[in-house]
Write a structure and sequence with these properties.
The protein is of the alpha+beta class. It is built from 32 helices and 30 strands. A hairpin with a 4-residue loop joins strand 1 and strand 2. The protein is globular, with a radius of gyration of 29 Å. GO terms for molecular function: metalloaminopeptidase activity; peptide binding; zinc ion binding. It is a single-pass type II membrane protein.
């Protein structure tokens, strides 16, 4: 019958069937009626009625879905997504719920595109509504996508099972057949069956619970607002919760495994506070009646913004007052801020397609800083915005970078879009835009964007239109930035007395890759400025240089201060070169004030010498952000071959007097990076001299650190980093103190409290001895604090005994003692150990196919593994080995951008050593006091 139906197809007037020269073939050998990766747009889902019944004993689930669909063109086919589901029944009903056919409808499957097609013998008429009814079953997934199983152990050693979802970006299709693309927004009415010992959670509150036979219960959830499939969520578990309510009446609950319930209270406080902040900042009420936050024991990402039911890794939500550090608290607060920002940016307004995922992730990353700064100013979150932009620059200064808005079609390409460019660069250009337009104009513009596209989808240009047209909305006036409606329609703004086209300007930051290098040449009272693309792996003398520069031009909102100016001066650079006239008698000029702009600055002539002298004599003439920015820019320019290493190192000489943690850690971070590089290459004289230099010049900073949890968050962050570095370099007072504390902790059988900010350092020193390492591994297995376990695991990877490192990798691969979710960071940590970097890389090569099965190609974990293991290499032989491996897995590596990033990173390391090893050796010999080496 099936063959007969297909043979009759030409009799019908069928619209919307895609064809190409090579028709796709379904799994049963018949032609599949659709050839594109994206679904046809002539069937629109309106409302899903979804029933899910997980069996936590048999580890499978069954379900049914009735999708109300709107037909735009006459057709016999409904094409939608399904992956790894067994479809047992397929029927189509008309608006009166009469069956279109009294027979089972054939279902064709095309796994390469994760699509199924259902054939209707009767034409589905344009303008009519129908119901597609499907019944399905599948095992609960292994891994971290779709509807998957997670486990945890109770204090009694009993293993408990739960089932949870993670759908972003393309895995809702693993849990139920659906139109799994962000623009197909619909309403959802969800029912979940469970045992009495469990609870069920979903996006909306429970409307009613119906008892069934066999001790089952069926929870009926309220109908949802319109949303994309990737935001749907449901969980069946036995967790406990703590609850509160916002001033606007939103119920907020934090869920965790019962034995960790006491770690949920800080998250509740933070979530309530930040939800209230966002309602005020966006001037739009949170549209759901509740917001649940739940810590899932097995979770690949940091967290996920499912509307009304945000899911988290335990380390991203739980805060244990006894074992969590200041950095842990900041992390939890920022992740909650990120996911709650998504309830507006991403959930209320969703990007039209994954090429613009930055509209979700860049905004959420930036709103972390805005929200935490407003609600928890003592956490000094603004300090970390600089690190975010430094990370973005690191990626963006390689030719293997990509534009913020980039093409992405298949699931692997889409997963790779969730990267530093979308998150960190996205946040940094939004920060630049906010300072460019002022806080009020920026805020009113994004409120307009959110209101205009509520429950809809938006593109890159829709954001710029909304911000530029703010003045045409009576609700939002913007002072001097308001023009006539005619000007507003042309996106006219005033900046430094000039008019500009905001969309054209911002397209230079989102539609082309890379970061501009602004070169400043001061000649008396005139500044000659020019821009070019900043590249770290190529010199202007290289043959390909000109082609790499061709077509690159940014509209750069420059800011600068001078020795005679207490105010920030602004200038918009829209051309390759320009001149600026400066006023008064000026000793120095510093561009990119407070690093609010996303660009690198190089000072020609004696510009760098002047700034180095200023930092030595009076570094407080510049803000701490400006000081950190100078240190960062100097070393970036060294890597790019634009500045001698000796000048950048001379600049760090002032750090002995530095009291702020951000520039201090920036300078120390570069010195530590160089130390790790020469240590791994076994360049003994430079390794010893650099260690001696760091310990000598930063002795005062090291010695003043207390082994306690006192002081501001900034003090505590500095303490954590400095103590860790000092002990890692073998500074005897540090090592002895850590040993004493570790021995006391072991004697108490791990019951005494250690200062949380230096706990990992104490563990790391203890892990160097056989007994200490064994004791730590035992404690790891019984700890109920994920913050503590994270610190223990980090310490265990510092062992210099190869067998121990290999044992950890094997435990991570087994996934019992060390959960699979922690395997990618474990591999990365082992690779950072000089004794483990070859081991980690060999482990990845040997287990590549298994790792891809565990984490999926394109995922964050796979990218982390590739970058984390290869970034340690700095020789041509190692580079060739990496290329050979990528060639051997060509079918997979050709789909990944990250392999190009890895190769270019190693090329950068090779070039750095070739150019700078001898200058580093000479500089250390010259600057080390006698008797210290």
């Amino acid at each position: 019958m099936f063959l007969l139906i297909l043979a009759l197809l030409p009799c019908y007037s069928v619209v919307g069937i895609s064809s190409d020269d090579s028709p796709h073939v379904a799994t049963n050998g018949l032609p599949f009626p659709w050839s594109k990766v994206r679904l046809p747009n002539y069937i629109i889902p309106i409302h899903y009625h979804l029933l899910i019944h997980p069996n936590l004993t048999a580890l499978n689930f069954s379900g049914s879905v009735r999708i109300e669909i709107d037909v735009k063109n006459n057709t016999n086919w409904v094409v939608l997504h399904s992956k790894n589901l067994e479809i047992t029944t397929a029927t189509i009903l008309d608006e009166s719920e009469a069956l279109q056919s009294d027979k089972q409808l054939p279902v064709l499957e095309y796994p390469a595109h994760e699509q199924i097609a259902i054939f209707s013998p009767k034409i589905l008429i344009s303008g009519e509504k129908y119901f597609l009814h499907l019944e399905f079953a599948a095992p609960l997934a292994d891994g971290f996508y779709g509807f998957y199983r997670s486990t945890y152990k109770t204090k009694n050693g009993e293993t408990r099972v739960l089932a949870s979802t993670h759908f972003e970006p393309t895995s809702a299709r693993m849990a139920f057949p659906c139109f799994d693309e962000p623009s197909f927004k619909a309403n959802y009415s969800i029912k979940i069956r469970r045992r009495q010992t469990h609870i069920a959670l979903s996006n909306m509150p429970i409307e009613q619970t119906v008892p069934l036979e066999d001790g089952l219960f069926e929870d009926h959830f309220e109908a949802s607002v319109r949303m994309s499939t990737y935001l749907v969520a449901f969980i069946v578990c036995d967790f406990k919760s703590v609850s509160g309510r916002t001033t606007s009446g939103i119920d907020v609950s934090i869920y965790a495994v019962p034995d960790k319930w006491h770690q949920t209270h800080y998250a509740l406080e933070a979530a309530v506070k930040m939800l209230e902040f966002y309602e005020e900042y966006f001037n739009i009420y949170y549209p759901l009646p509740k917001q649940d936050l739940i810590a899932i024991p097995d979770f690949q990402a940091g967290a996920m913004e499912n509307w009304g039911l945000t899911t988290y890794r335990e380390t991203s939500l739980l805060f244990d007052p006894d074992t969590s550090s200041a950095s842990d608290k900041l992390w939890v607060t920022m992740v909650i801020g990120h996911e709650l920002a998504h309830q507006w940016f991403g959930n209320l307004v969703t990007m039209e397609w994954w090429n613009d995922i930055w509209l979700n992730e860049g905004f959420a990353r930036y709103m972390e800083f805005v929200s935490v700064d407003a609600t928890y100013p003592d956490l000094r979150v603004e300090d970390y915005l600089l690190d975010t932009c430094f990370a973005a620059i690191g990626r963006d200064s390689l030719n293997s970078s990509r534009p913020i808005s980039s093409a992405a079609e298949n699931p692997t390409q889409i997963k790779e879009m969730f990267d530093t460019v979308s998150y960190d660069k996205g946040a940094c250009i939004l920060h630049m835009l906010r300072h460019f337009l002022t806080d009020d104009v920026f805020q009113s513009g994004i409120v307009r964007y959110l209101r205009r596209f509520s429950y809809k989808n938006a593109k890159n240009e829709d954001l710029w239109d909304s911000i530029a047209n703010t003045c045409s909305d009576d609700d939002f006036t913007s002072g001097e930035f308001c023009y006539s409606s005619g000007q507003a329609a042309k996106n006219a703004y005033r900046y430094a007395g000039e008019h500009l086209d905001l969309k054209v300007m911002m397209n230079t930051w989102t539609l082309q890759k890379g970061i501009p290098l602004v070169t400043v040449d001061r000649q008396g009272s005139v500044l000659k400025i020019r821009q070019e693309r900043f590249l770290k792996t190529m010199l202007p003398s290289d043959p390909a240089w000109l082609s790499m520069q061709q077509g690159y031009l940014w509209h750069v909102p420059l800011t600068y201060m001078t020795s005679s100016s207490k105010t920030i001066v602004r200038h918009l650079l829209e051309t390759q070169s320009d001149t600026i006239k400066i006023q008064g008698d000026v000793n120095w000029v510093k561009f990119n004030t407070d690093m609010n702009g996303y660009y690198i600055v190089h000072y020609e002539g004696d510009g760098w010498d002047t700034l180095i002298n200023l930092m030595k004599k009076n570094h407080t003439a510049l803000s701490y952000k400006d000081r950190a920015n100078l240190v960062h820019n100097a070393f970036q320019l060294v890597t790019a071959g634009r500045l001698p290493l000796s000048k950048a190192l001379d600049l760090t000489g002032y750090l002995k007097s530095e009291t702020h943690n951000v520039p201090l850690l920036q300078g120390l971070g570069y010195l530590e990076t160089f130390y790790k590089m020469v240590e791994k290459r076994n360049i003994i004289d430079v390794t010893q001299n650099l260690k001696a230099y760091i310990l000598h010049y930063f002795k005062a900073v090291i010695d003043k650190q207390t082994w306690s949890d006192t002081g501001s968050v900034s003090d505590r962050k500095l303490r954590s980093e400095v103590v860790s570095l000092a002990c890692d370099l073998g500074y005897l007072p540090c090592v002895e103190k850590a040993k004493d504390l570790f021995n006391s902790w072991v004697k108490s059988n791990g019951t005494i409290s250690l200062p949380t900010d230096v706990t990992e350092t104490i563990y790391s020193i203890g892990a160097q001895e056989e007994e200490g390492w064994t004791f730590l591994l035992e404690k790891y297995q019984v700890s109920f604090s994920e913050a503590e376990k994270y610190k223990i695991l980090g310490a265990l990877t510092t062992s210099r005994v190869s067998d121990k490192l290999l044992r950890l990798l094997n435990l991570g691969m087994e996934g019992e003692v060390i959960k699979t979710q922690d395997l990618s960071s474990l591999i990365y940590s082992v690779a950072r150990n000089p004794k483990g970097h070859f081991m980690a890389w060999n482990f990845v090569k040997k287990n590549w196919n298994t790792l891809v099965e565990k984490f999926q190609l394109g995922s964050f974990c796979i990218r982390n593994i590739i970058i984390g293991t290869t970034a340690q290499f700095s020789s041509k032989d190692e580079l060739e080995g990496i290329k050979e491996f990528f060639e051997s897995i060509q079918e997979q590596s050709s789909q990944l951008r990250v392999t190009q990033v890895a190769v270019e990173n190693v090329q950068k390391n090779i070039m750095w050593l070739e150019r700078n090893l001898e200058p580093l050796r000479m500089w250390l010999q010259k600057n080390l006091p006698r008797g210290t080496n």
